[in-house]
Amino acid sequence: MRLFSALEKRLGTIADDETYIRQLLISYVPAIFTTLFGVVWTLLFFLAGLPRLGWILAAYSLVCLLATVLAMTRPRFGPVAIVSLALAGIVSNLLAHLVVGGFAAGIWFLLWVVILPLSVYLSGARRQGVLVLAVALLAVAAAVVLDPRLGTPLALPDWLLLVHNGFVLSASVLILFLWGVYVIQQLDAARRRADTLLLNILPAPIADRLKRDPATIANSYDEVTVLFADIVNFTGMSAQADAADVVNFLNDLFSQLSLIHISEPTRRTPISYAVFCLK
Predict the structure, then answer these.
(1) Rounded Cα gap, residues 251 and 62, in angstroms
(2) Which has the closest alpha carbon to 251: 273, 266, 232?
(3) Residues 6+ apart with CB under 8 A from 147
(4) CA-wise closest residue to 96 among 132, 49, 36, 143
(5) What is the DSSP string of 22-79?
(6) CB-based contacts of 115, cutoff 8 Å, min separation 6
(7) What are the helix (H) ranges across 202-271?
(8) Helix, strand or coil for residue 80?
(9) How far apart are CA 170 and CA 159, in angstroms?
(10) Which helix (H) or strand (E) holds 267?
(11) For 224-258, how does the pLDDT look when each residue is reduced to its tens digit (9 = 90+)?
């Protein structure tokens, strides 16, 4: 929680849009954990006697660290850092995939390639996300084309395959789940804001009909009663009063008027109130 709070505070210095800040957090937080786990996997590969994989992961971890530091110290360069991290991830995982001997080695390096384009896209960098997706597809195509030409796959320890593949699969499922939760929350928040805006302008029944069918709404009534109330000398009174007092006064007045009729108010202005009672 402290990590999220610190990141939000830092990003708040360059952006006031809460949605944009959360989009950046989508990529920053995985980048931080990728750096930490990259170091761990670098050590494990060296301990397993796989120095080439170790150096590839070490280089990727260094890029992750530099990109994260750049994003934290210069938040305006956040999108550039995110795209750089994603491209480095695609290249390093493709190289690792080829080094171990391709698909026959049984280790799932290329699964990360699926996550990286989505990370960039959800961070708000839409065009860059499409570019990273194209690079990811090219990487997968290259892996498929080159696979028959690769030599005998490396004999990886069973414990390494189990730990690595389990970690990659679990992390991918968790990241996709959290991103899905985020997207649903953003959609719900946008819907609530739209509903609030509609209810501030239109009566609830009309707003509900408009959401179901955006076509023109027109009804006919045999009997209509119109009430129009005007606040006398409101302009002069409001010029001498505190703004908060004026707003509270209007809110109380309109609330009282709303109690004496049987339909929703259809028009409000700063100095008048109109309502139609329909039968």
Answers:
(1) 59
(2) 273
(3) 102, 103, 104
(4) 143
(5) HHHHHHHHHHHHHHHHHHHHHHHHHHTT-HHHHHHHHHHHHHHHHHHHHHHH-GGGHH
(6) 172, 175, 176
(7) 204-212, 234-239, 243-258
(8) helix
(9) 16
(10) strand 265-269
(11) 777 677 777 777 777 888 888 888 887 787 777 66
- Report CA dihedral (21, 24, 28, 29) to the nearest 10 degrees: 60
Q: Which residue has the tokens 């006697």?
A: 49
Mean pLDDT value across residues 115-134: 82
Across the range 75-100, mean pLDDT stands at 85
Burial class (CB in 10 A: 0-12, 13-18, 19+), 195: middle
Between the ranges 77-81, 164-168, 239-243, where is the mean pLDDT highest?
164-168
- How far, rounded to the nearest angstrom, does the alpha carbon of residue 256 sit from its chain's CA centroid? 42
CA-CA-CA-CA torsion sign (130, 128, 1, 17): negative
d(CA 88, CA 113): 10
Cα–Cα distance measured from residue 206 to residue 86, given in angstroms and rounded to the nearest whole number:
47
Find out whether 75 and 12 touch, Cβ atoms under 8 Å.
no
Query: Tokens 């002069």 sit at which residue?
Result: 236
Which residues, listed in sequence order, are joined to residue 226 by a DSSP beta bridge? 276
Q: What angle do CA 274, 278, 279 make, to 5 degrees?
A: 165
266 sits in which H/E element: strand 265-269
| Cα atoms in the Cβ-side hemisphere of radius 13 Å centred on 100 | 27
Average pLDDT (96-105) is 90
What is the mean pLDDT of the segment spanning 20-40?
Answer: 72
